[in-house]
Design goal:
Cytidine Deaminase, domain 2, seven-stranded mixed β-barrel, 3 domains, EIF3F/CSN6-like_C, two-stranded antiparallel sheet, alpha/beta
């Protein structure tokens, strides 16, 4: 890619890529004991946004004890890319992926190999078994890290923003695949609350990561990165001043308004539940009354039938007696 391109600011990963990576991960998990799988990302770059629209798996193996020993079949990579290029010439190699879930020691060396096919290669870590809430993707670009002590520069990775995006046709396909999955939430309100809860849990996880990082920097386990410190300071500067009287008053008013809505909604819910209970009781009473009347009618019909049969028998007996008396006389 030309060196005059705009700096990369965001990576957009399509759902088809996530599905392909998860399929690759579980297929390899059945035939071997690999902890991660590696593949190539295809897409396009425009105005600082990298659009990852496709991917394919690449044979990869590594020694768990020695990170410097690894193998990636670049001949297979070239053959697969040639076939993909025949299908869609606009999709070019834009980077590579692995299933992490974190960065590995040999990722820089693997990235140097991928740079033969893409100068500004991007690494996207896709967690096939996410334990934390949030997006399962983390995007990185390789940079030269300059040390303050004057030692030679080293290659490292810099994190960039990533998100999940899709075109209309892809959204329709994904919805069709997920149609049979039962949605436990009912209604838009419950979905919004669930999404907000998941977002807050994800935010809590990120805050814990920041705290762990600052603890390690304070104890000397990690070097000071001024860029990260400046970004954290910008975040702290955006925090509101909770000691202001106007803020406290407005927060109380807003909270009271929301609690009033919740209280009214609870009352309405209780009234509706009571109304349904009364309707159910009335319906059960009517059903029991109808059933009792049906039983009474059946009992009456049975008694009438028995009485009629008895009268017929008595009449037959009387006629028989008269006939015998007539015969004797």
């Amino acid at each position: 890619m030309p060196g005059t391109e705009e700096p990369l600011t965001k990576v957009v990963v399509h759902p088809i890529v996530l599905l392909s990576v998860v399929d690759h991960f579980y297929r390899m998990g059945k035939v071997g004991n690999q902890k991660r799988v590696v593949g190539v990302l295809l897409g396009s770059r425009r105005k600082g946004v990298l659009d990852v629209a496709n991917s394919f798996a690449v044979p990869f193996d590594e020694d768990e004890k020695d990170p410097s020993v690894w193998f990636l079949d670049h001949d297979y990579l070239e053959n697969m890319y040639g076939m993909f290029k025949k299908v869609n010439a606009r999709e070019r190699i834009v980077g590579w992926y692995h299933t992490g879930p974190k960065l590995h020691h040999n990722d820089v060396k693997v990235n140097e190999l991928i740079r033969r096919y893409c100068t500004n290669s991007v690494l996207v870590i896709i967690d096939a078994k996410p334990k934390d809430l949030g997006l399962p993707t983390d995007a990185y670009v390789a940079i030269e890290e300059v040390h303050d002590d004057g030692t030679p520069t080293t290659k490292t990775f810099e994190h960039i923003a990533s998100e999940i995006g899709a075109e209309e046709a892809e959204e329709v396909g994904v919805e069709h695949l997920l149609r049979d999955i039962k949605n436990l939430t009912a209604g838009t309100l419950s979905q919004r609350i669930t999404n907000q809860l998941l977002s807050l849990k994800g935010l809590n996880s990120r805050l814990q990561d920041i705290r762990d990082y600052l603890d390690k920097v304070a104890t000397g386990k990690l070097p000071v990165n001024h860029t990260i410190i400046y970004q954290l300071q910008d975040v702290f500067n955006l925090l509101p001043n909770l000691s202001l009287e106007e803020f406290i008053k407005s927060l109380s008013v807003k909270t009271n308004d929301q609690m009033l809505v919740v209280y009214v909604a609870s009352l309405v819910r209780a009234v509706i539940a009571l109304h349904n209970l009364i309707n159910n009781k009335v319906a059960n009473r009517d059903a029991e009354r109808d059933e009792a009347s049906k039983k009474e009618e059946k009992s009456k019909e049975s008694k009438d039938k028995d009485t009629k049969d008895k009268n017929v028998q008595d009449k037959d007996k009387e006629e028989k007696t008269k006939a015998e008396e007539t015969k004797k006389s």
